[in-house]
Specification:
Oligomer: single chain
Distance between the termini: 11 Å
Low-confidence stretches: 67-73
Shape: globular
Mean pLDDT: 90
Strand content: 15-25%
Radius of gyration: 21 Å
Order of helices and strands: EHEHEHEHEEHEHHEHEHEHEHEEHHH
Number of strands: 13
Strand order of the largest sheet: 3-2-1-4-5-6-7
Largest sheet: 7 strands, parallel
Length: 396
Amino acid sequence: MSKIDFILSNPGHHAAMMQPVLERLKDKGGYQCRVLSLCEFRGFASPVEQFQMADAFICIPSRQMRSSSASGKQSDSRHSRWLRQTVRQVSWYSLMQRPFRQALATPPHLVILPNDAAFPYNHIVRLLHQRHIPFMLLQEGIRFHLPHDEEGEVYGSGGAAVIAAWGEGSATYFRAQGVPPHTIHCTGNPRFDKILNTDWQPQADQLKSQHGFGRTNLLLLSNPIDDQGFCTTAEKMALIHRFLSEIVLLFTDPDFHLIIKLHPRESVAAFQATADVFPFHSQITVLGPTLLYPLFKLAQAAIVLASTAGLEALLFDLPLAVLEIPGAGFVHDYVSSGAAVGLSWERPFGPQLNALLSQSSTNKEKSQQYLQHALVFRQNSTGQVVTLVEQFASKQ
């Protein structure tokens, strides 16, 4: 009987990519699977119902520790960085180290993680190495260099026995971090199996009726670029205000609507307050914890800052743009690959967005080439990951 532990901290993306793998392993038989959840530490409720097939579900810690929204109040000062590190150290040693040591008292044959660099995964990885427990890194999102990577661990460099990468683009990234090539396997990501095989139109129709979206909907997909180190929270909100100021003329069309979809760690109230200062605020809808994929069915185009949501928009065949981040440019390779257009502050936004909304500014062939490079499997990623687990477990 092979013992496999799954560790997750996001009840959305992490659960969606781990649940089908765990379920397939249980269906095959011969595997004892546990879930160790950090969701309560992140301020979320653990997705216990989604993992009823697991042999055990352990919450570490057992109660919710903080709110999940309005995070990212970071600055680049040395004192702020020191304070964050101190709080994290205290959290690990006072709340998490002992429960993890107890959970791993009987070592599993393999641990599956979505991250090996961000806190507290960096501490978990060290503990796994101390116990000589191998782990698989199941890639959670697109990979690119972050401003503070040089200050600590870099994603993928934690010494995984095996890495399940999305595609050749990610494999190239991992090799550049010094990851041994033989540990990298291109599998795609299991959560896309279900996403692409689901009819999202009924939920899209419901959202349109609920919020009164127009015939022309532009989707702005924000993410915590402040947490990523590209700016402070105040600078990010100033960026959003500047963006809205640049697209004033688009709102003269009564059928135009801007949908701002936030990451769970962003504050709806802060974005709403930014939108409310404009006279056209009734044509702006700020959404927090809402499914992203029905929005793709409603939108005519999407804009991202620095997130996986750009790849997902391309999967739904949406014209894509990337908003330039001052001091960082166009993050990731969406623009450089030709799969997306770059919204530059050096040119008026109106013509750039009109071209995007009319779909005259995207290259479908390059978008498809990009998707193949970034996500090699889109229909049977679950099977690819399960095969990788089986191959590794058989060697133990």
